[in-house]
């Protein structure tokens, strides 16, 4: 496996305020992961932090909250990732909310070749065409990166950043109303029940889609986990996978020579007194990378 490089991307620009007068706490997640020894335990190079612009709660209906700043941040993150990828390293991006996915999407779109995405997420294929509950890029990022949405879905004139048919959404909830549209648009769906029934087989099914490409990115949203084990997310929906299942499926994906990088998003330390869930997630990352190196 290539040298791992950790880059903090502590942006909370893509979320609604959890309550009036407060800001989303996911920007604190990289600190919890680092305090859990993630850098040393992975033997990773430290690429520092890409500081996010100031969070602004104000929102005008019809627009995306913090849209201009999210666009700037995505371009800057894409630039940072390009340098890491050009050096032959494997970036591990610590978010932050899911809007940081626009950075890897744009970075891969700029590179020669055709690239895929494996999204480990509870799935929320929300966009202005199918929901009035829009305005927060964190909840629309999967749709944006595959071509649905406004300005943020076409930065630098690119749309889509990654093709829907080259995208696998894993860990989705069986009751997600947006799943049918995602499938119709070409995304490959693997629900949480299938992951739970056989994480290795689920990983193999995902790899069958993305391994024929020139490489693929892994997006890990902590809400893919069941809220019984990971309550520290902004949308804790039941029916998710366990930590052990995540470790197994992630290890299978990371063992592929085609994996180019990984981002970890939405874990909110403000919702995790004592940070036990965050430390457990760090343990899973270490174990999954360890398993991948062993099987490579």
TrEMBL record:
InterPro entries: Ureohydrolase, Ureohydrolase_dom_sf. SUPFAM superfamilies: Arginase/deacetylase. This is Arginase family protein. PROSITE patterns: ARGINASE_2. Belongs to the arginase family. It holds the Pfam family Arginase. The keyword ATP-binding does not apply. Keywords: Hydrolase, Manganese, Metal-binding. The keyword Protein biosynthesis does not apply. The lineage of its organism: Bacteria, Bacillati, Actinomycetota, Actinomycetes, Kitasatosporales. GO terms for molecular function: arginase activity; manganese ion binding. Gene3D superfamilies: Ureohydrolase domain.
